[in-house]
Structure to design on (332 residues):
């Protein structure tokens, strides 16, 4: 297996590179089942085709990066990184109400169509999702790095598996830790991967539990951990009686479409959109890491590369455990 990896390392040297590769193999048991440059012979331009597709889509719609990143999370946390979230049909993951607000499907489908023309039956939809999310981060200004490929597409997609395996925005810290640990992710990974909220949009219903409607029909803040000025802005954008399912706000009110460390600065300013964001500052187990990332973007980017690698290797399927779908929406 090739172990060559090029990851964002602003102060990198050979020693740092070897340490990171060792970390990847030690922390990601599934990594040994994948390989870097997996398509070097079978489809040399595969990653370039995915990257170009994501870049073209992002230039037309700046929200695409956040959608692709969220799509990856919802795929990998349920049945592992196997593109099961893409399958259409009654009772599939995609049909569950928790996934109806997902986006980015058209970008994955576009990349798949191109790949099927030049390399038919070669590149899995699972790899396309992982590569597209990786590229989406880089295109939005985040770190660029290499990830292993060779995932196969799963054949099982069950809506009943969705709710028990994704983070609810009202989760307590212990609930989040338990779920992340079940996926092989640590407390550090939890704080790091929460940084995905530096881009993307959220529906008003996702944080409505932080407000309450008074006797006059107006919303009032009940979560005192939220900055009052920010809370008033959220109420303005998500008024009582408005459509909480269609109205959206940016996860990051400061640099909405830039993948940076502003998310952690927002947490320090008590401007975390979700309760599951704010709790990272309130809990003594995670506050220090929030402060470190807020003050050092390079530190966040380095940690992101490590945690993202672990995320994209959760319960991967290889060899005969899966297939290479001809269409990402349906099994063969």
């Amino acid at each position: 297996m090739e172990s060559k990896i090029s990851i964002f390392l602003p102060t990198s040297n050979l020693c740092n590179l070897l340490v990171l590769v060792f970390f990847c193999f030690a922390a990601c048991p599934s990594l040994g089942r994948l390989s870097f440059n997996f398509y070097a012979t079978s489809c040399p331009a595969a990653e370039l085709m995915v990257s170009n597709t994501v870049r073209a889509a992002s230039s037309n719609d700046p929200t695409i990066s956040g959608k692709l990143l969220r799509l990856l999370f919802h795929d990998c946390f349920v049945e592992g990184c196997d593109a099961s979230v893409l399958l259409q049909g009654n009772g599939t993951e995609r049909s569950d109400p928790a996934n109806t607000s997902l986006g980015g499907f058209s970008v994955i489908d576009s990349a798949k169509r191109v790949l099927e023309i030049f390399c038919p039956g070669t590149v899995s939809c699972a790899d396309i999702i992982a590569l597209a999310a990786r590229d989406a981060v880089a295109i939005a200004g985040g770190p660029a790095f290499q990830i292993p490929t060779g995932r196969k597409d799963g054949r099982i997609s069950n809506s009943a598996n969705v709710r028990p395996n994704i983070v609810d925005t009202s989760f307590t810290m212990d609930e989040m830790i338990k779920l992340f640990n079940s996926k092989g992710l640590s407390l550090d990974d939890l704080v790091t991967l929460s940084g995905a909220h530096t881009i993307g949009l959220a529906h008003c219903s996702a944080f409505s539990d932080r407000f309450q409607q008074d006797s006059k029909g107006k919303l009032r803040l009940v979560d005192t951990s939220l900055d009052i000025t920010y809370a008033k802005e959220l109420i303005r954008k998500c008024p009582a009686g408005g459509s909480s399912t269609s109205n959206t706000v940016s996860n990051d009110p400061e640099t909405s479409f830039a993948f940076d460390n502003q998310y952690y600065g927002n947490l320090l300013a008590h401007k975390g959109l979700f309760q599951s964001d704010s709790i990272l500052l309130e809990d003594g187990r995670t506050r220090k890491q929030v402060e470190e990332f807020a003050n050092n973007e390079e530190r966040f980017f380095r940690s992101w590369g490590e945690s993202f690698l672990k995320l994209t290797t959760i319960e991967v399927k290889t060899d005969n455990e899966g297939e290479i779908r001809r269409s990402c929406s349906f099994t063969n």
Summary: Strands lie at 201-203, 211-213, 219-221, 248-250. Residues 1-22 have pLDDT under 50 and may be disordered. The first helix runs from residue 14 to 27.
